[in-house]
Amino acid sequence: MQYNNKTVWITGASSGIGKELAIQFAELGARVILSARNVDKLNDLKATLKGGGHLVVPLDLAQPEHVLSTVTVKMSELPAIDILINNGGVSQRSLFLENDFNVYRQLMEVNYFGLIALTKAVLPAMVARRSGSIVSISSVAGKVGSKFRTGYSGSKYAVVGFMDCLRAEVAQHNIHCLTICPGSIKTAIAHNSLNEQGIAQNKPEKSIENGMDVSVAATKMIRAISNKKDEVIIGKGLSGWAPTIKRFFPTLFNRLTAKTNYR
Fold it and tell me: Can the keyword Oxidoreductase be found in this entry's annotation (predicted)?
């Protein structure tokens, strides 16, 4: 696929996977719309991107109703969106019995309702043009569960289910829907993960530190978009194989996850 003169909207663009996707899409000639809460980081990124015409649209996915109302109005001011990448999200590292209930609310607002709100605002114009791609970043945790992820995994399972249904509904309108399930990728996701009080834990995690390089992951994601895939799992080692292991050896997988004691 050629990306010259294409517009790609990326949430969670201030760091990690979102930032790397923005860099690579810009290098491919796309116009990139950058969204996240941190405007300074978005503007700094914009200044470094190859090409021109890139835009900064600050969004707080934790306020989905505001996202829906403001973006719906703003759509008339923006170029036609060719690809929407719902990447913004937050993870969790804490036990269910210790979690404040609000932790689950935070995770669902950002990872699920924020994603739905932005998709709801952007999709109608794609349908009217009979062209476009909706890409949502779920997680391997949206395919298999493990300790310390009850809230995160639940929200990411919800994304997988939503995208499966949306794909079926908009196929008649020539809209492509891709669900990406990353495993362990070298980003700040562990540092930003919520603890039992809903506060970022601010510490590293070995599996993330040893994960796939973010530039490699982003390249694979763009390839999946270009090839019009429906769903891909991107990760190395156990994080990439976990869904397959659970599918064919569910009892073994469940025993292993019950014994695992890392966050």
Answer: yes
Sorted by where each begins, the domain ranges of the chain are: 7-259
- Cα end-to-end distance, the chain, whole Å: 39
- Note the CATH architecture for domain 7-259: 3-Layer(aba) Sandwich (3.40)
Query: What φ, ψ does residue 233 adopt, rounded to 5°?
Result: -110, 130
| Alpha carbon of residue 194 to chain centroid | 17
- Selected catalytic residue, list 3, 112, 152, 157: 152
Beta bridge partners, 11, equal: 35
For residue 66, with 0-12 CB atoms within 10 Å meaning exposed, 13-18 middle and 19 or more buried, which class applies?
A: middle
pLDDT at 118 exceeding the cut of 60 = yes
Per-residue pLDDT at 263 exceeds 60: no
Strand 83-86 with 7-11, pairing: parallel
> Is 3 an annotated catalytic residue?
no
